[in-house]
Design a protein that fits this description.
The complex is a heterodimer of chains A (393) and B (254). Chain A is α/β, with parallel strands linked by helices and 393 residues long. Chain A is built from 16 helices and 14 strands. In chain A, a hairpin with a 2-residue loop joins strand 11 and strand 12. Chain B has a nine-stranded parallel beta sheet with strand order 5-4-3-2-1-9-8-7-6. Chain B is α/β, with parallel strands linked by helices. Classes of the chains: A alpha/beta (393), B alpha/beta (254). The structure holds pyridoxal-5'-phosphate. Pyridoxal-5'-phosphate (PLP) binds next to helix 5, helix 11 and helix 15 of chain A.
């Protein structure tokens, strides 16, 4: 079984490029060039240099001793939270801004939910002196004021998405419409492993630095490159895709994906796409998505704005369908408590998205000699308001 | 039976087509609007199947789709509204909609139902040419449905030739870069584009859409093409006037 993208842009039956003709020239241009550009020595050099000196990579692989003791297993945390801007998102935006420059684009657009990808995009645009417009749902703008301020400080224009439910899905629609309106000079930096081919594959490759590092870091610490389990939270699936990438075909490494169950998978307020979704087309790709019987896309819910997306990337739909990955979901309560637990045990305040991955211990028991690697995709600074409200701090 | 769209394209005149979102302004306006448009002399009609996330549409059509969905429009309901339409209306009818609702209905079932109620063709902006040819063309052909593809000013010549070869009806020429309703009028750029396409001597006639809103833009758009489609401007009219005065609106165009 193959878990990478095929020549046509599919992961099994998922993926493809279901785009209006207006987007065809840009997406096709990207498709024809992305692998070539990524293989250029000068590209690799610039990408690696920026990841090292600007982002602060490699990110540590940290043996969480007290957490391990509590759950009687061996837990490593991949510390994406220590990256510049506080999450894994910047790995992708660095890669894509370099890509955009080589494609001759002058203007950058992006969508954002919680504002993490928006901040990471605004950051690299400031770094490269490029115009940056970030679409954000009107409701999210109100919920995530500090990140809106960050983006503005960085010189980005934050445009409210006023259509639909005015959250991440609609911000993505608006970004796509902007690209249709500006077909020549603009590059769209998608923030997750979603969208039309080649986006899921390109984003995955930029994020794959995560598992590339885990391999040699584990070798140093454990004497072998492969853990028993590799675990990540899934919104669209970019941190998960990067964390799994180099282990996809190592069948003895078990993959666990944690989705956001919100107030409970069947509560009507959930973002557990693999449990609730059906095959469909969203934002240019065929994947699993939450929708009505009539094919209208429904609005997900999670306490974590970064997991509040009605679909998953096509690679993950394929991992789910083939059974290569085990999908579980964590509720708001489970995630919040797992976040607080990590804070108390290890002195690390995680992003609420990452707290969902940490909630795996509520659902699974590991053996004492299992090596369990969890992607700590981001830090919790942005979520303090939510933690304060939730725990009445 | 020869497809009504192909027959209509034989007529020696510039064709006027109108788009509206089914279920807007009121849920059960669909057949009234279709009948009034035919009576007003419109040549063919695009019935919009509303979708929650219409990527290629600007605010006007997004809003009419949202209202239609709120009103309770569904794929099944649209087909039941259109059940007897061919007893009343003779001009070509095209369904324009996004792919996901059709996928959920089942593409085969959707096409069969289209043929049953007398739909002549489909416009599905987010169903790409290669996927259509690989997976769905046989189904469309079996049910006698014409599939309409879009081209834009950015579409390269080679791609246009490919689309022309795959088309069997007309080519939907998007007037300029942009979503529906975003164009302010036509200028030299459009004229160059219209001329470029005219000089390609494609086998399929072209119908222009996006940005046609009055007699002047209709005239400009049809100078070198077979016809033009009005969407957002008609939706705005329905918004203001409701279903009354459809013929007045059509008369302002030609
Ligand atoms: C810290 C963090 N983790 C995870 C995610 C979810 O995105 P993805 O599934 O693409 O990794 C986000 C999105 O905003 C995030 O900020």
């Amino acid at each position: 079984m193959k878990y990478n993208v095929d020549e046509k842009g599919y992961y099994g039956e998922f993926g493809g490029a279901f785009i209006p003709e207006m987007l065809y020239p840009n997406v096709e241009n990207l498709r024809q060039n992305y692998l070539k550009i990524m293989a250029e020595p000068s590209f690799k050099e610039e990408f690696d240099q920026l990841l090292k000196d600007y982002v602060g990579r490699p990110s540590p692989l940290y043996l969480a001793k007290r957490l391990s003791k509590k759950y009687n297993t061996k837990v490593y945390l991949k510390r994406e939270d220590l990256n510049h801007t506080g999450a894994h998102k910047v790995n992708n935006t660095i890669g894509q801004i370099l890509m955009a420059k080589r494609l001759g684009k002058k203007r950058i657009i992006a969508e954002t939910g919680a504002g993490q990808h928006g901040v990471a995009t605004a950051t690299v645009c400031a770094l490269m002196g490029m115009e940056c417009i970030v679409y954000m749902g009107e409701i999210d703008i109100a919920r995530q004021a500090p990140n809106v301020a960050r983006m503005k400080m960085l010189g980005a224009e934050v445009r409210p998405a006023l259509s639909g439910s005015r959250t991440l899905k609609d911000a993505t629609n608006e970004a796509i419409r902007d690209w249709i309106n500006n077909p020549v000079n603009t590059h769209y930096i998608i923030g997750s492993a979603i969208g039309p081919h080649p986006y899921p594959d390109m984003v995955t490759r930029f994020q794959s630095v995560i598992s590339e590092e885990i391999k040699w870091q584990l070798k140093e610490k454990e004497g072998k490159e492969t853990p028993d389990y590799i675990i990540a939270c899934i919104g669209g699936g970019s941190n998960a895709a990067g964390t799994y990438y180099h282990y996809l075909h190592e069948e003895n490494v078990k993959i666990i994906a944690v989705e956001a169950a919100g107030k409970g998978v069947h509560s009507g307020e959930s973002a557990a796409t693999s449990a609730l979704g059906k095959e469909g087309v969203i934002h240019g790709c065929k994947t699993l998505l939450m929708q009505t019987n009539d094919g209208q896309i429904t609005e997900p819910y999670s306490i974590s704005a970064g997991l509040d997306y009605p679909g998953v990337g096509p690679m993950h739909a394929h991992l789910h369908k083939t059974g290569r990955a085990e999908f579980i979901s964590a509720t708001d309560d489970e995630a919040m408590n797992a976040g607080l637990e990590l804070t108390k045990l290890e002195g690390i305040i995680p992003a609420i998205e990452s707290s969902h991955a940490l909630a795996v211990f509520k659902h699974k028991t590991f053996k004492p000699d299992d090596v369990v690697v969890i992607s700590l995709s981001g830090r919790g600074d942005k979520d303090l308001d939510n933690y304060i409200k939730y725990f009445k701090l | 039976m020869i497809n009504r769209i192909k027959q209509k394209l034989q007529e020696d005149k510039k064709l006027l087509s109108i788009y509206f979102s089914a279920g807007f302004p009121s849920l059960n306006d669909t057949t009234t609007i279709i009948q009034d448009l035919e009576k007003s002399g419109v040549d063919f009609i695009e019935v919009g199947l509303p979708f929650s996330d219409p990527l290629a549409d600007g605010p006007t059509i997004q809003e009419s789709s949202t209202i239609a969905l709120k009103n309770g429009m569904t794929t099944e309901l649209l087909f039941s509204q259109l059940k007897d339409i061919r007893k009343m209306v003779h001009i070509p009818l095209i369904i324009m909609g996004y792919f996901n609702p059709m996928l959920q209905y089942g593409v085969e079932a959707f096409c069969a139902k289209c043929a049953e109620v007398g739909i002549d063709g489909l416009i599905i902006p987010d169903l790409p040419l290669d996927v259509y040819e690989r997976e769905y063309k046989a189904i469309f052909d079996k049910h006698g449905l014409v599939n309409i593809f879009l081209i834009t000013p950015q579409t390269g010549d080679e791609r246009i030739q490919q689309i022309d070869a795959a088309s069997d009806g007309f080519i939907y020429m998007v007037s300029s870069a942009g979503v529906t309703g975003s164009q302010s009028g036509f200028d030299n750029t459009q004229e160059d584009y219209f001329n470029r396409i005219a000089n390609m001597h494609l086998k399929n006639p072209q119908i222009v859409g996006f940005g046609i809103k009055d007699a002047e833009t209709f005239k400009q758009a049809t100078k070198t093409t077979k016809g033009a489609i009005i969407g957002s401007a008609f939706i705005k009219h329905l918004h203001k006037e409701g279903v009354k005065g459809i013929s007045t609106f059509v008369k302002t165009i030609r």
